[in-house]
Amino acid sequence: MSFGKFTEGLSERFQRLSTTVSDKAQEFSQGIPTTHRYMQEKLGHVTDISEMPQEYIDLTTKIDAIKLTYNHFLQVTQVYDNESYDYPKYINESINEFSKTVGSKIQELTRAASAHEAHSILSAPGPTKDPKTLNYALSRVSLVSSECMEHLSTHDDALLASYLMKYSDTQSRVAQARLHQDSLIQTHFNARLREDIDCNLKRAYKVRKDVENKRLTYDASRTHLEKARPEKEAQLRVQTETAEEEFAQATENAIVVMQEVIASTNFMPLLRELAAAQCSYHENAAQRMRGFLSNFPGDNDEEQPSLSSQRHTVDQHNLPIPPPSNTKTSSTSEGFPAISLSDEPEESATEDKPLL
Fold this sequence. Notes:
mainly alpha; Substrate Binding Domain Of Dnak, Chain:A, Domain 2; 9 helices; disordered C terminus
């Protein structure tokens, strides 16, 4: 490459850099009046602020309400993105699992005949683990307890071991249903909320920001025009009229965009997806637990009703629970007469007054 072409290319790159710097400087200089105007409004030094159309105000209120609803729900439902949100945390378990994994790797490495086999052992994935959920934890401890009971010889222990095994299987299936619920909520609810926030609502806030900047520019231009000297009044008037047109155009564009965003964001079907996933899981879990409890040994619903049914009966009739009959109390319970602390008859509350 000749020296002339080199200098020509260098000059061209320098010219582009100068143009870029000039544009940025112009943007910065244009932003100074709007920033100053913004600070004056926030401090209450300026009261002459252009009013926005009522339609624009109503749309911004609607957009803010939608975003607030989405954000509040995501703050809660994002827990479904974490598989172990209901899992009891035990550090000893993690240490034991790590120790077992390392120990098994070491044993396999001692049997490796070549460097290639050793590399394959180290790069191989570890053993498959159950998901860390509360139901899987219950399933695991029930299974271990059942295996312990199997070593005992009595009939009752064998029966308990059998039902512990059934309970383990039930909890495992409930855990699978919970993970399916979580997957549905992640894809059909959380992901859609995030998509609306990152795309639709972000688009609405972008045009609103543009309107705010145009409004600040217009109000700053009006203030400068009011304080302008006669020789600069014509120039500032043209700038003010231009700023007013840009402000009006930006407002109209923002109204259209916000209407489109509101039309494309519908929370009702998303809420239905959330409730449907939860309903399916709870129905599945209740069905499996009822199946486990059916024909449970020792159950006799007629002679020995469960505690939950007793509470339901009391709540249904809205009756207070009386104290035991052999208990003495000094206070009066609502709906029941007071029981005296003394076995002696009560004395009259009135005393004989002397005659005058």
